[in-house]
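Bench log, entry 3. Co-assembly request; chain sequences pasted below exactly as received.
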Amino acid sequence: MYMDKTANEAFDPLSLDNQLCFALYACSHEVMRRYAPLLAELDLTYTQYIAMMALWESEPLSVKELGERLKLDSGTLTPMLKKMEAKGLVSRCRDAKDERRLVVSLTDEGRGLRESALRVPLEMSKCVDLEPYEAQELHRLLHKVLSSFGDA
Amino acid sequence: MYMDKTANEAFDPLSLDNQLCFALYACSHEVMRRYAPLLAELDLTYTQYIAMMALWESEPLSVKELGERLKLDSGTLTPMLKKMEAKGLVSRCRDAKDERRLVVSLTDEGRGLRESALRVPLEMSKCVDLEPYEAQELHRLLHKVLSSFGDA
DNA sequence: TCACATTTAATTGTATACAATTTAATTGTT
DNA sequence: AACAATTAAATTGTATACAATTAAATGTGA
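Structure output for the full assembly:
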């Protein structure tokens, strides 16, 4: 997974700057770093933020469903959801119909946080210097890469 | 930082699917997961792999220089470099001219690993379903986002 | 030159990530 | 019903990430 800009002259497949994967990695972390101060005002980490977005959209969700949505497993989610429960954002209850499932619901406080969170994506848009069509194209290409992995 | 595909009808700024940042986050992690089995054959993690790429290109590098290249800090690099030293891939020495600097160099084994690593980007290219121009455009857009953060 | 600011790594503490394993609950089959 | 197979979370162990602090070395100005 690398960029062959020349397709002609000598090309180094192991050059860091030619790696699409490194651009992806670095960009993802830089973006998360920019979110951190905004999210800190809401006492959320980035991963907690995307979990809240999933729940604001559809609730309740089992750990498995949330994991499929966020592409994270129980090893990541279980400790995080316990912290979110301790903060009063969500409640965690076993499903009475199927005790294997643990169902995550929003508390009133968790639901209420949505209002304050609205400003986060707005603020972030400001500091990303992409034309609207570029943002759309980037989004499309990222999803194309994701779906080439068998989607989800 | 979100995708407004419609720019017209009711649009939810907190919808997970509209988040460019989530596409970035999920894509980055999925790609890293695909690298893992290939890199495991070289006994490398993904972060160790990009550190090796930086060193294969330019060596030696101080921890600070490596951190600037990879956009990682000493809190991440110090423990990782110690593991890489323990595996015999790199050596870590204080700079005699400036004892504050810790200089990372490749061992012969570390240099030799480059040959086996050549197949990694080749293999990865195969499983990412992007046209060459799409890969270039994705690369360009990721760098544009990165540079809108004051570059590096 | 000598107090003081700056620079560079290392350390500390918190929070993911994820493979592999374990435990408990449910399902499918006989 | 009995029991093997499957499923869902939790747990374990390893490896990042990063903010904040610390410690040591170097640079700097009065």
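DSSP finds seven helices and three strands in chain B. Residues 45-48, 72-73, 75-76, 79-80, 83, 98-101 of chain B lie near DNA strand D (CB under 10 Å from a C1').
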